[in-house]
C-alpha cells in the first residue's frame, strides 16, 4: 500500500472546492435538463416534478459528474509525486419542495455512487535509498445513502439566491449561488 509511506495524518483526500456554473433548460413545466462545468469536472442532469400542489411539490433529481485531473506535490520524504484521476460520480435524489411566495425549502434522501481509476508515479527518499513508486488505483464508492436540505429565495422576478447542504457518511458538500432566469 503506497499510503504506508506517508505520515499517519497525511493520507491524501479529495477536496473539490471551486466554482460551478450550470445552464438549465425547461423542456416542460415539470421537467428541466441541465449541464454544468466546474474546474476539472463537467456534468449533466435533470429535475422532474412528480406531484404538484399549491404549497408542496414532490420531485426527483438525477445528476452525473465526470472528472479528469492531475495533481503534483512533494514533501514528507517524497522528492516528487504525480497522479492522474479519472472518475464519474452520480446522485439520484427525491423529496418535497415547500413553496411560499418567493421562498422554496426542499430536502430529502439521495443515493450516491462513484467509479473510476487513477495512476500515480513518484520518488520516495528513505535514508540513502530512493524508492521509485508507480501504481494504479481504483476510485470506487458503492451505493451510499445521504441527505440534502436547501433553500431558494426569490430576490427579483428573474433572480434567486440558493443555498444547499448535502451529507453522507464521509461526504459533505455546501453550495451557494445565484440563479438567473431568462
TrEMBL record:
This is Outer membrane protein beta-barrel domain-containing protein. It comes from marine sediment metagenome.
